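Let's inspect one such protein example.
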Amino acid sequence: MQNGMHTDTERCVRAVQSKDARFDGWFFTAVLTTRIYCRPSCPVVPPKPENMTFYPSAAACQQAGFRACKRCRPDTSPGSPQWNQRADLVARAMRLIGDGIVDREGVPGLATRLGYSTRQIERQLLAELGAGPLALARAQRAQTARLLIETTPLPMAEIAFAAGFSSIRTFNDTVREVFALSPSELRARLPKGRTGAATPGVLSLRLPFRAPLNPDNLFGHLAATAVPGVEEWRDGAYRRTLRLPYGHGIVALTPQPDHIACRLTLSDLRDLPVAISRCRRMLDLDADPVAVDDQLRTDPLLAPLVDKAPGRRVPRTVDEAEFAVRAVLGQQVSTAAARTHAARLVTAHGEPVDDPEGGLTHLFPSPEALAALDPESLAMPRTRRTTFTTLVHQLADGTLHLGVESDWEEARARLLSLPGFGPWTVDVIAMRALGDPDAFLPTDLGIRRAAQELGLPSTPAALTARAAAWRPWRAYAVQYLWATDSHPINFLPV
């Protein structure tokens, strides 16, 4: 699917008339007669084509004076898959806005992180999304406000603050403008007893995704590699601690047939949008599985794997620096040994947290804490120790930055220049931490075994040549190839 799908009127009209949920988040339909905007799969009778106009973002609809539909709730669509599959300025800006940077650091902070002027960023976002960074951040605040109004019994003043509004008045005006209802009217529309649990700081919500979604390798991978104290699998949910801008959190994520159930405990409610954004990213929920699987099916040797279990996602991370450290700990050792190494670091250098349910004890140590440790205390070969200490020092002093806004190629080059970083480590970080959908691991033992079994070329060079036809989705091909093995990462824990 191309950028700017909203400009292809005929295609958009077809998607709306067939109520095709695959296009939710790709574009929004604004109805000229009612001044309401909807997602493509809205259940109401579609308007006449001449009364429809299309926008690339909810923020653009709101700026043009349209209100969100009360039936299909377009603000709860999955995000556009474009921001995960692209590495250009607009995509990196969108990932940062999703991570709450505009609310915390303003548009100048966004520009500084991307290395461009505020004018360049505003111009590019406006050209592609029909809205600038402030409008996009405002749409996100409105969405967070609605979520808190509908899922918690919190007083409105607390919700306004938690959603990132600077005043109660702005909160009231924005909610009324976007949803055509006041905050208290929004809450009054809920069925009795629907406003969430009264446990302070605990929120239960649903994370939408585009179907199909195969949870096996996604949750299987996270559970099989879980670091004790930081992550666990319990009662059908993956739980982990989160280091967030204003405090910390604990999340429990449970796969359901049509959504992911998410239970969040936060020390500061202002971290809600960031926590949601990071969990969605970790579970790759904004992916377009139909586009991915259609492309991979064109290879006759991959097609049976895709048909058997479509909708595989790439398990990612909530913290890029943490993942890079764990990738080094996992070099040339088993999954179990990597977990043991990481668990020792967590106990010695992680920040303790309180888990009301027990089981989780720490945040994963920050690069600053790891840079301060005595290298001699690390139970690993001297060369690996050098790799580890170089990485954590560069992460701690900012020489190396791994974040949602990272330029994938630039980050790869920086990682490759570090001692002990070969193509496998760099690509596994690109795939799972940076989110590059085309990262590929031709030297990985599991991949080579799977290739041999399927009759694909098994030498790295020949396999890379064959995999050119799978681009730009080679990271997903990796998931399908890994899944041919009986390793625990491929199965939902019982």
About this structure: The chain has a mean pLDDT of 93.
